[in-house]
Structures are given as C-alpha cells and as structure tokens.
Amino acid sequence: MTELFGVPVALLLGQLLLGLVNGAFYAMLSLGLAVIFGLMDEVNFAHGAFFMMGAMFTWMGGQYFHLNFWWMLLLAPLLVGLVGMLVERLMLRRLRGMDPIYGLLLTFGLTLLIEGVFRSFYGVAGEPYSPPDLLGGTLDLGFMYLPLYYVFAMLASLLVCLGTWLLIERTKLGAYLRAGTENPSLVQAFGINFPLLVMLTFAFGSALAGLAGVLAAPIIQVSPLMGSNLIIVVFAIVVIGGMGSVMGAIVSGLALGVIEGLAKVFYSPISTTVVFILMAVVLTVRPAGLFGKEK
Amino acid sequence: MKPKQLILALALTLGAATLAHAGDSVKIGYITDLSGVYSAVDGPGGEAAIKMAIHDFGGSVLGRKIELMDFDHQNKADLAAAKAKEYLSQDGVDMLLGGTNSATALAMAPIAAQYKKPFIVVGAGASSIVGKQCTPYTVMYAYNTTALARGTASAVIKHGGKSWYFLTADYAFGKSLEDEAAKVVNADGGKVVGQVLAPLGASDFSSYMLQAQASKAQVLGLANAGGDADNAIKQANQFGVTKSMKLAGLLLFLTDIHSVGLPAAQGLYLTTPWYWNQNAQSRAWAERYFKQMKAMPTFLQAGDYSAVMSYLKAVKAAGTTDGTKVMAEMRKMKVNDMYMHGGSMRPSGLMIHDMYLMQVKTPAESKEPWDYYKLVQTIPGNEAFGPAAAYGCSLEK
What residues form DSSP beta bridges with A134? Predict the structure, then answer.
C-alpha cells in the first residue's frame, strides 16, 4: 500500500472525505448562528438546544406518530423554526437595543431549560435512530466503505449552505435584511416591516439548527445532551470565520471538519482541541476572523 | 440587608451548620456522573437504587436516620476530590460511594483513607484502584477491568479472533481496560496490531473506524463505555467494520444494548457481574426498580443497592459508624443477596464474586423488552479477577 507521511493513502483519502462530511455539518450549524448574529447582533446560545430539538423531534415523530425520516426532514425544522419564532417574539425582542450579553444570558438559560425538560423525560442515554431504508446501504469506494446516508447528509448540508448564501447575498429579501442591520429605522421608513423580518430571520436560523439535528439523528445518538457537546465547537467556527459572515461560517466549517479529520489520523488526542488552537491563531492574526469586517 | 437582619441570617446559617455537624444521621455520600456520558449507566438510576436500599433497610441504622447526599462530579477528578473532602471533613459523611469514572475514583480514594472512612467503588473499573493505589478503606465492589478483559477477550480469542485493534477511551479507565485485554490477548496466543485513543465523549468515531479497518485486524476491541461504546458500535455497523471484523465490547451495560438496538449489537460478547434476569431474586428486584425508573437496571445500579445494603449491615454488626471498625466487619462478611452469592473481600478491598460471560441475543431470540443476554459461561470469581499478586497491592503481602 502506498503511504504518505507514514499513513496509507487510502486511509488519508477516507479521512478527507469524512472530514468533508463533518465539515458540512459544522458549516450548516455555524451558518444558523452566523445568520442570526450577522443580521440581528444576537448571540444565540440556544442554537445547540435547537439542534438537539430537531433530532429529538425526528425521533419522537417516528416513535409516537410513525412519521418516517422524510416527513420529519420537513416537519422538524418547521417546528424548531416555530419555537425560534416564539422565542424571538416573546422574549428576545424585549432585549433589543440592550447589551448583547443579556440576549446571551437569556438564550443560555433557555438552553438549560430545554435540555432539562428533555432530560427529565428521556434521560441521557440516547435513543437509536436508523437512517431511512433508501439510504441504509453502504457505498464501496474501493479505499473505504461510506454509508450512503453520509453522502446524502453531506450533499443536503452543502445545498442548504449554498441556498442560504444566495438568499442573503443575492436576493432582494437578503438586501432588505442586510440594510436593516445597518439602519433599521431607515428600512422601516421605506415601508418594510423590519420587526417581522427579524422574527423570521431568527426562525430561519433556528430552523437551520433543527435541520442539522434531523440530518444528525441517524449518525449520532439522539440525546438531550447532543447539542451542548457541539455548540462550543460551532461557536469557535463562527469566530474563526468572522462573527456574522455567512461565507466565513461555511468555509471555516468545512475546513475545520477536514482539519479535525486529519488530526485524528496523525495525533488523535489533539482532535478535540485543534479548533481552539486554530481560533487562537486566527484571532491573533485577524481579530475579526477570516471573513469578518472590522467594525 | 440591614445589619440586624444580616446577623440573624448569619446566626441561622451557623445554627444550621452546627446541626449538620451533630451527626444525628448516618450519611452516605454518592459522588458520580449525574448528567454526562456515563449518567445512564449509574447516575440518577444509581441514586434511585440507593434510596431503595435505605428504604429496604428500614430507613435507619443504630437508631439513627440514614441520609443520602449526592453530587455530580461531571467526570472531573478535581471536582470529585474537592467534594469528597468537603463531605468527609465538613458534612460528617460516613461512607463515600464512588460512581462511574476511574479518574474520579482514584482521586477520591486517598481522601477517604485520610479521613478513615469506607470508600466503596461501584461504578469505576480501573484495576489499579485495588492495585498499586489500594488503601485499607477502598472497596471495589462490582467489577474491574481485569475481570472484564479476562472474560471477554479470552472468549473472543477462543472463537477465532486472534489479531486485535483497540479503540480506547483516552483516560485511566480506557487505558487500563486496553492493557488488561492486551495482556490476555498476548497470553492466549493472539496479537495486538494497533490502537487509537479517542477523547471521552466523542460522538464521531467514523475516522477511527477507517483506521481500524486499515489495520486489517480480526477483532475491534472497544476499550470504552457508555455513550462512547454506543456510538462506536453504531458506526462500526454503518462503516462496514462489522463485515470484516468482530466487535468485542470490553465494558457494555444493558442500557448500551438498549440504546444501540439488537440489530446492531447482536452477537457481541460481554462480561458482566450481574444481569437483571439471572435468577428469581434479581428479577424481583429489577422489576421493583423498573416500576420507578422505566428502565431495567444496569449492573452498576444493582451494585449500588447491594453495596449500600452490605455497608449498612456492616454498620449494624459493628455497632458504630467508625470507619475502621466497619471496614473490619465488611472484610469478614460473606455477601449473599440479589447481586452476588458467596461474595467475599480480598485484603486489597476487591470483592470476589462470579462473573458471567454473555452474548447479546439476536432480535429473533429476544422474547420480551430488555431480554438481551444469553449466558455463555459462568466464570468463578477467583478465575475472573485473577491472582491477587498480579494487582500489586501492598495490603496483599
């Protein structure tokens, strides 16, 4: 077998591919955070909880209502989006104009609450959830077996990322949103209902987390704590990419997935830390993050 | 707050603190993972089991009320040690019950020894707890990595799995489990071709699966536990590892099998000190537990119950909660209950009792919910835990 740096090439290729799969996940999760931060200046700590809810709803749909994965792929993000909408309308809106730290505290508290509720009902053990039959197979790539579902999850995430980027950077709606970030009252003066737009943005960001949760359900155990395990990493990615930069979140999400994958081959214990090392380096060189703009 | 109120509040606090010191009740301090990756196998379920024990014992011993205090160590050894110290030095706790995570148990053991109070380890498995780091006050009650490795590894080798690759949880317990299993593999004519360390609580094992496959070993030994083991087994199936390799779970709990599901877990060999359906007595107890917790107990939760019962019996026999006297009583005891038969303690504090080699049933073999194991072989206690000399505990000499 050919080797590169003492590692079989097939193994390296496999890791790169897996890194891309993970990266696509990270990208989608950080995307939701970046959208909310970029357009609302709101640090949404409940993002991990929304992610977990997406996965839990998916499992619950199958368990109680016999709704299959495809149904839940549609329903769970809608439900999570609805929760997000309520959170924005009933709570976060009252904190507008105040120090962002209040929003952060509120959403952090919400996370504990939501996790606690799910934990008291479902424990922490994790519930199994199988990929849909259609995607249950495994692809033999010669150098590795890749579960079909991973391919699907990666493509779906990338598609969503691309769609979101287009929506925000290339459509009129996106333009309104970006304008509103700069000067909400001026946008209002043009007859645009900006508070509604903000609520929908928050709902959209939450729905993205929910969608990531649905896609993650068949890959990792569905458990009330799955969100808090990921959220810190996702925050780091957003910071690396530049707070609020949609493209930054996507690129650094993908990159981190790959780097983490490689770290696992060469020196596994560092794989959980590598993101923070990267963050420290990026912040030293570019304090606003890779794609961030200095304010 | 006005000065007067402040003084009143202070006085009340002090008063309460003095009351707590009065030692009216017999206190059990349960320090475990109550919310993290290991909480499903011990955690809140263990707490429920301890309460059952206190209730079954009649709620009091030596005319004193039995009280349970618990703490979530979050798998952090420093937190566990600090709380253990606080329990023993300030709260007047009489016995420490150590839950999951060997790193925390190893941190708590010297503190219990310093305060001369029994420290009964149920959840943690590193053999060094009763090996090089044994103390006269540590009891290892339920299992250890030696027994698990000897049971499972030798069974898998007997069935043809000669070359091994280990996926190991990166801390004391995982490494101890891997070491013990590797010893058995080498001794039985097998070979270890490689290993990879995975951080505790990693949810993505896919890249480790690729590395395992690339090693061309016949057996993937899982030297991890709890949520880690669940994810590893699930992903081993997804990545076709199970097509080319056999899986050997070195520490698997009933809840793991439950959350992974029989289709993915079937055929796995595992070693356990207890199974809810092993006899009428265990079944009766498990059903009581099930009514409360809506899940069948793991061998740790049942072990928590048995350990507390044994401790309380020893307190009653000794007529005091003095740690040294209670330990002397526990060393003399033969434990016969729903958990073990003829259980007895070695000078190192290791409880010797039979272990069971089980195989996970196929979905077709499973006749009722939680019906997951079939007994392959009963391993007599001394054979399972191995010779005392191998542990290197100074109390054995």
Answer: none
Q: Do A125 and B40 touch (CB under 8 A)?
A: yes
Q: Any CB–CB contact under 8 A between A213 and chain B?
A: no
**Residue-wise pLDDT tens digits, B72-120:** 998 899 999 999 999 999 999 999 999 999 999 999 999 999 999 999 9
Q: Are strands A138-140 and B64-72 parallel, antiparallel or unpaired?
A: unpaired
- B208:A264 CB<8 A: yes
Spatial distance between the Cα atoms of B101 and B112, rounded to a whole number of angstroms:
17
Q: How far is A45 from chain B (nearest CA, A)?
A: 19
Instruction: Fold for A3-285, please state it.
Output: ABC transporter involved in vitamin B12 uptake, BtuC (1.10.3470)
Q: What ipTM, to 2 d.p.?
A: 0.70
Q: Tell me the CA end-to-end span of chain B in Å, nearest whole number.
A: 62
pTM higher than 0.90: no
Strand order in the sheet with B138-140: B60-61, B64-72, B26-32, B95-98, B119-121, B138-140
β-bridge pairing B95-98 and B26-32: parallel
Domain boundaries, chain A: 3-285
**Which residues have a Cβ under 8 Å from the Cβ of B351 and sit 6 or more positions away?**
B139, B140, B141, B142, B335, B340, B343, B344, B345
Q: Name the interface residues of B facing A (CB cutoff 8 Å).
A: 35-36, 39-40, 43-44, 170, 196-199, 201-204, 206-208, 210-211, 213-214, 227, 230-231, 234-235, 238-240, 243, 255, 258-261, 264, 295
A221-259 per-position pLDDT tens digit: 788 888 887 888 898 998 898 887 888 889 999 999 999
Higher pLDDT, B397 or B337: B337
How many CB atoms lie under 10 A from the CB of residue A99? 9
Give B122-151 pLDDT, tens digit per residue.
999 999 999 999 999 999 999 999 999 999
